[in-house]
Write a structure and sequence with these properties.
InterPro entries: ROS/MUCR_sf (IPR041920), ROS_MUCR (IPR008807). There is one protein chain. By secondary structure, the protein is mainly α. Among the domains are: 6-49; 65-116, ROS/MUCR transcriptional regulator protein (Arc Repressor Mutant, subunit A). The protein is 52% helix and 5% strand. It has 7 helices and 3 strands. The protein has a 3-stranded antiparallel sheet.
Length: 149
């Protein structure tokens, strides 16, 4: 039976702190990822000792419906991870180890929550249409078939 006394728990927490400190001193880790990293290390060490692991997912404060509506702005989308505004969230999420689906799930966002700012999406759409993409017989098709100008 593994030790359950306060001394062994304190030893485990101290060890987790030392491991995370060593890792962070040699790797770039955003502050928002530290609780998850600590929980992961704690879980791994506790499993080695036969103790039940702490949940790997830290509690994340979910935004209110009003905050969700306000996060989608014409020129950018406010990230619930760091509060900064981005034209597209995909690269930002990848940097934090999340997929769009996982991000929506983590923060309780609807399935149709956009990953691209509406204004930026409209701008890119207009640019694509201007060069003939997505239109049958557009410039792109003309180049392939050798017809047109």
């Amino acid at each position: 039976m593994p030790e359950q006394n306060p001394e062994s728990r304190l030893r485990l927490v101290t060890l987790v702190g030392e491991i995370v400190a060593a890792y962070v001193s040699n790797n770039s880790v955003p502050p928002t990822a530290l609780p998850e990293l600590m929980a992961s290390v704690h879980g791994a060490l506790a499993a080695l000792d036969g103790q039940p692991a702490a949940p790997a997912e830290p509690a994340v404060e979910r935004p209110t419906p009003a905050q969700i509506r306000k996060s989608v702005q014409e020129d950018g989308i406010v990230s619930f991870i760091d509060g900064r505004t981005y034209k597209t969230l995909k690269r930002h999420l990848t940097a934090h180890g999340l997929t769009p689906e996982r991000y929506r799930e983590r923060y309780g966002l609807p399935e149709d929550y956009p990953m691209t700012a509406p204004g930026y999406a409209a701008q890119r759409s207009a640019l694509a249409k201007a060069i003939g993409l997505g239109v049958p017989g557009g410039r792109s098709d003309q180049r392939r078939t050798g017809t047109g100008g």
